[in-house]
Amino acid sequence: MFTQLTRHDPDVHMNRWYTVTVQPTLLDPVTVITVWGSRENDFQQVRILPVPSLEAAQTIAEKIVAMKIMRGYQRVIE
């Protein structure tokens, strides 16, 4: 799963991006990786959340995407 979101609101000077992926790793069975930042500068953050199963990872990723969409983000690529 790979989902990229953006949010652009010139009224509050907001131009952000957010990416959610589900990936296997060497140490954990599956992880949910979220990366976000500004489209106007080099700022970015990464969060890696280890999860015990692929189903749990997909559920968590879908909840994260749904929360971001409720906050005004829009899907770019899925």
Characterize the structure shown.
- The protein has a 5-stranded antiparallel sheet with strand order 4-3-2-1-5, covered by helices on one side.
- The mean pLDDT is 92.
- 22% of the residues lie in helices and 50% in strands.
- It is elongated, with a radius of gyration of 13 Å.
- It is of the alpha+beta class and 78 residues long.
Fold topology:
Layout: E1 2-9, E2 14-23, E3 30-38, E4 44-51, H1 54-70, E5 74-77
Antiparallel strand pairs: 1-2, 1-5, 2-3, 3-4
Structural features:
alpha+beta
Quick summary:
The protein contains 1 helix and 5 strands, in the order ββββαβ. By secondary structure, the chain is an alpha+beta fold.
Mean pLDDT: 92
End-to-end separation? 7 Å
Mind telling me the C-alpha Rg?
13 Å
Task: Give the class from helix and strand content and strand pairing.
Answer: alpha+beta
By DSSP, the count of extended strands is 5
Beta-strand residue percentage? over 45%
Biggest sheet overview: 5 strands, antiparallel
Share of helix, binned: 10-25%
Number of helices: 1
Q: Oligomeric status of the shown chains? A: single chain
Q: In which order are the strands of the major sheet placed?
A: 4-3-2-1-5
Shape summary = elongated
Low-confidence stretches: none
Order of helices and strands: EEEEHE
